[in-house]
Amino acid sequence: MIVRQTPERAEWFSSGPPPRTVVFDSSRLQAVGTRPPLTEYLVQLWGSRHFVLYDARVRLSVSQEHTMLGKAWLVLNPALLGLTFLLIFGLLLGTRDGVENFIAFLLVGIMMFTYSSRAIVAGARSMASGRALIRGFSFPRAALPLSINVRDLMSQGFVLVAMIVMVLAIPPLEPISWRWLLLIPIVALQTIFNWGFGMLMAPLVHRIPDVGNLLSFAMRIWMYSSGIFYDPSRFVTDERWMLLFEANPLYQVLSMSRDCLIYGITPEWWQWTVLVVAAFGTWLLGLWVFWRNEESYANER
């Protein structure tokens, strides 16, 4: 088809407004999937808070839906594990000797440590479990380990209530004290530590999935070295080894929780210092490592 330009058409084109030059600043544009600056990344993470809360609630609601007892297993699992430790270590091996109210001592230790074990392992595996979301949507990837930790914090709420009821119901009965309120900042610092450690391990587990299995094994070693079913001061005579126990943030979580709930003792300032430094130091390091690897999480493997 041949289009001929008539004088009328030429006049119609020339009567329009003159073309304008639009200046567009492309200096702040980024390719899709690139890592933003850390401060901007934190702003984006805060903007994802509604997604984090929704995802945490969904994860919590479906976590035990395939079982008959449902969320009761959040309490039954550590309670049954505690019964096993009580029979083997407390009665057969005598680790309860010299420990006041050993049953409460054991229950508090297991229920508090299981929270960290569950949250750290799940947070480290968050990139693999959330692969579909990562490849389908654009959002700060740190929202996934955060969502998992929020879910586990919600789950721990049921466990804490059950733990307090057990401390009140199982002889010898412990009196209610204002120190029980100190459990709130202890759990808050523990949660920050869990999130930071999960982010620290997530890039490595993403690259080498076998590390996830090794991490589960490492958490068992961590559990046995945190004084779950024994008082380290009864078995450790070298002060240098005792310093290693006291530098262990999860040992401090257990020790401080027991002091507040069972023994009516206010944790000392140096214990708070160890836990605060470990929690925020691990979180800052974990966030930086996780952010540095942000661009690798959507890679096909």
UniProtKB/TrEMBL annotation:
Pfam families: ABC2_membrane (PF01061). The chain crosses the membrane at residues 73-95, 101-121, 153-170, 182-204, 269-291. Keywords: Cell inner membrane, Cell membrane, Membrane, Transmembrane, Transmembrane helix, Transport. Its main location: membrane. GO terms for biological process: lipopolysaccharide transport. GO terms for molecular function: ABC-type transporter activity. It comes from the Bacteria. It comes from Kocuria dechangensis. This is Transport permease protein. It is found in: Cell inner membrane; Cell membrane.
